[in-house]
């Protein structure tokens, strides 16, 4: 049997070095549990970065994929397919949007949203209305357009020239909106909870103020729910808890349980700006991806599942609060549902990764959101016993980190 170190050595020789994989090589997953190549069994509180919302290899989705795999895999968008029609009907019915566009990733969903907003403004207001407003610390993807829309400068550095007419504001600062959004704004893009940037939830007041400013200046409001959507926060989409409906919604990550798919949803009038030939994707909405997403959405929309998110969220928050106080570790615990971030106190700033590495030694998988924040985005099906076990392992990992530092 090959060891993890051995395999990672092979990986590092042939892969472009844009990732730095941790010292673990998973080969099998079931629910919240992962088995690695050396036979260790780990509890996964990362959900593959908020992707395996139903856990690893959820039986309903595995079944749907196998069934579709025996029928047809791909037809291109010169043809419609049954799984696509069924998914689009289910999705629009569940969310209250009229129309949907499918891509293969979060970036592609956001790219479609930004392009649609520009095209809609062009069609209805002329080409001068082209500014896109976003917020510092936000994350919207890694294509050139979406990484420029994101509010993290380090991700854009060295990739210029960047698409122009992008304006950045401060999140949750209502009094600054007036100077930010004006007649030239074609769209405002925001995450209801900034996830990647450190887990910062928008206040309902802020979201409502952004909505009002958009309406005043005839700008479209885009909510990027690639991470916060698909049940993650205890409602199907986080916007339901803010009392604000966007004009365009993006979803991906957990949408296909790990099978790549992204989606952009919108109202009928806005959708009309994407006529045949204006935008497209070879794989987008492919029958396999749509079968996986339909089976996933059917499970995520169940009241029992969303109720479990709320219960586990309370349990996780309580457990983290206790550990934070006992070890004087956390400055703040933030988030909604099962998207929780713990900002480390001053002595531990910049050291989030040390906790992740210690957790692996204690057979627990956790994430960071930047260098100062520990992030928890487990399966939405996590049980009470599993989470209790996770918190026990987390305490052991904290103790190990504190002795090592
Ligand atoms: C992950 C993420 C993206 C990018 O998704 P990819 O599938 O990696 O392209 C975009 N927006 C948000 C909010 C995300 O969390």
Description:
The chain is α/β, with parallel strands linked by helices and 405 residues long. 40% of the residues lie in helices and 18% in strands. It contains 14 helices and 17 strands. The chain has helices at residues 4-14, 47-50, 59-69, 82-95, 106-125, 144-149, 153-156, 177-180, 204-216, 268-271, 287-300, 303-326, 352-361, 384-404; strands at 26-30, 33-36, 41-44, 99-103, 131-135, 166-169, 185-190, 193-194, 200-201, 220-224, 248-251, 262-266, 330-336, 339-344, 364-365, 367-368, 373-376. The strands form four sheets. It has a seven-stranded mixed β-sheet with strand order 4-12-11-10-7-5-6, with helices on both faces. The chain has a four-stranded mixed β-sheet with strand order 1-2-3-15. The longest helix is centred in the last third of the chain and has 24 residues, at 303-326. Bound molecules: pyridoxal-5'-phosphate. Pyridoxal-5'-phosphate is lined by residues 105-107, 110, 139-141, 191, 195-196, 224, 226-227, 252-253. Residues 105-107, 110, 139-141, 191, 195-196, 224, 226-227, 252-253 line the site of pyridoxal-5'-phosphate.
């Amino acid at each position: 049997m090959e060891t993890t170190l051995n395999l990672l050595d092979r990986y590092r020789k042939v892969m472009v070095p844009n990732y730095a994989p941790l010292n673990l090589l998973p080969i099998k997953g079931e629910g919240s549990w992962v088995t690695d190549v050396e036979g260790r069994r780990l509890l996964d509180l990362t959900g593959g970065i908020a992707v395996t919302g139903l856990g690893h290899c959820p039986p309903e989705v595995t079944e749907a994929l196998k069934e579709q795999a025996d029928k047809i895999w791909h037809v291109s968008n010169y043809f419609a397919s049954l799984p696509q029609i069924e998914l689009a009907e289910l999705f629009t019915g569940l969310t209250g949007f009229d129309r949907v566009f499918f891509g293969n990733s979060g970036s592609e969903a956001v790219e479609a949203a930004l392009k649609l907003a520009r095209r809609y403004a062009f069609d209805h207001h002329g080409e001068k209305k082209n500014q896109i407003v976003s917020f510092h610390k936000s994350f919207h993807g890694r294509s050139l357009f979406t990484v420029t829309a994101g509010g993290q400068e380090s991700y854009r550095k060295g990739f210029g020239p960047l698409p122009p007419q992008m304006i950045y504001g401060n999140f949750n600062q209502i009094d600054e909106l007036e100077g930010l959004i004006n007649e030239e704004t074609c769209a405002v893009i925001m995450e209801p909870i900034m996830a990647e940037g450190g887990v910062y939830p928008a206040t309902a007041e802020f979201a409502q103020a952004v909505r009002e400013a958009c309406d005043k200046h005839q700008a479209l409001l885009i909510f990027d729910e690639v991470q916060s959507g698909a049940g993650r926060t205890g409602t199907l989409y986080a916007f339901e808890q803010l009392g604000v409906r966007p004009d365009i919604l993006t979803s991906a990550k957990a949408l296909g349980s790990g099978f790549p798919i992204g989606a952009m949803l919108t109202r009928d009038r806005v959708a009309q700006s994407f006529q045949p030939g204006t935008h497209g994707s070879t794989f987008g909405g492919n029958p396999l991806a749509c079968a996986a997403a339909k089976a996933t959405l059917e499970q995520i929309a169940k009241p029992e599942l969303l109720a479990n998110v709320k219960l586990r969220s309370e349990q996780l928050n309580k457990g983290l609060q206790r550990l934070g106080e006992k070890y004087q570790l956390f400055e703040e615990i933030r988030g909604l549902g099962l998207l929780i971030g713990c900002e480390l106190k001053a002595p531990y700033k910049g050291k989030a990764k040390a906790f992740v590495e210690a957790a692996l030694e204690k057979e627990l998988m956790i994430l960071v959101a930047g260098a100062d924040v520990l992030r928890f985005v487990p399966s939405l099906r996590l049980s009470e016993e599993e989470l209790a076990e996770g918190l026990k392992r987390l305490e052991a990992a904290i103790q190990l980190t504190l002795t090592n530092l």
